[in-house]
Structure formats: C-alpha cells, structure tokens
Amino acid sequence: MKLSCTILCASLVCFFTACTMPLRPSYDRTTGSYRLSKGEQHTNQVMANASGTTADWMTIIKPWIGTPYKYGKASRNGTDCSGYVMNIYKEKTGVSLPHSSSQMYQMGKKIAKDDLKTGDLVFFGGGAGVDHVGVYLEEGSFTHASTSKGVMISPMSDPYWQPRYKGARRIQ
C-alpha cells in the first residue's frame, strides 16, 4: 500500500511537471514533419500581433496534436482543418470563424508570405480554389489537421504544401 502511494505520488509529480514544461516545434528530417519537444526553451522572439506568440499558441495547440481527421467535425474526438482552426482561433483570440476554409479565405487582411506572423491563417489548395487552412506559427511552420495524420505541425516548405500555398490572411 505504501509503495503504491509512493508510485502514485511520483507519477503525479512527473505528470504535472511535464505538463508545465514549454513545448517547441522542431523539424524531424526523418519523418518530414514538425514534432513537439519538451523542455526546450523558446529562444526566437516572435513579434506579437493580436493573436499572440508561438509559445502562447502552443498551449492551445498541444492538447489537439494527434487528434484524428474527420471531415465535417470540429472536436478533439475528430476534426477537419477548418474545424480545428475555428476552435483554436476562438480559444486563443475570442474571434468566431466559419467552419469553411474558403469562407475564412475571404476574411481579414491579405498578407504577403514574407510578412507572415504567428496567428495568421495560411491557405492551400490543389486547384484554383482553397481547400485547406492552418495557423502560421514561426520559422515557416504551421499547424493544421492533415487528412492522413490528423492535427500536426508541418513546414510550409514541405514538397506537398509548398506548391499548394494560396495565400494568408490576418484576422484582427
């Protein structure tokens, strides 16, 4: 009994300590995507806009990482790209967005790729229109709900995403 309590207490301390450590996306060359690493300090200064810094966003993004993709859904049990962005954007900024990437693309101020800041919406599409949305973080990374891997962080320079980039919007 005493040993069980000791193990339980030690587990809780580890759990709560791990939950408070900052997460930072880092690029994993073997998988071609970004992953979250615990304990790394956030060293890059990101100019804060109305939406906050990457570190601010990561506290909201972290619980969503790995959520499976489900078309038309918008919860941590399953979500599509616009449902995910709609939820995290509302939680971070208080702004309600539509559950449609093409409608989101019509909102806010158009932003040049070179002027992207954390919290800007980034849009992608395979043809003439927009069919995917994510939130820009920093250093060319964005968070989104991938149809194949669920909620994740990816580099915009990825060979899949780079040619599909359509533009960005800043919602103030």
TrEMBL record:
Key word Protease present: yes
Signal peptide: 1-20
Keyword annotations: Hydrolase, Lipoprotein, Protease, Signal, Thiol protease
The NlpC/P60 domain, residue ranges: 51-172
One GO process term, biological-process aspect: proteolysis
PROSITE patterns with a match to the protein in the record: NLPC_P60, PROKAR_LIPOPROTEIN
Domain of life: Bacteria
UniProt GO MF annotations: cysteine-type peptidase activity
SUPFAM superfamilies for the chain: Cysteine proteinases
UniProt cross-references to InterPro entries, sorted A to Z: Murein_DD/LD_carboxypeptidase, NLP_P60_dom, Papain-like_cys_pep_sf
Pfam family, one: NLPC_P60
Similarity comment: family membership: Belongs to the peptidase C40 family.
Protein name listed in UniProt: Putative lipoprotein NlpC
Organism, as annotated: Hallerella succinigenes
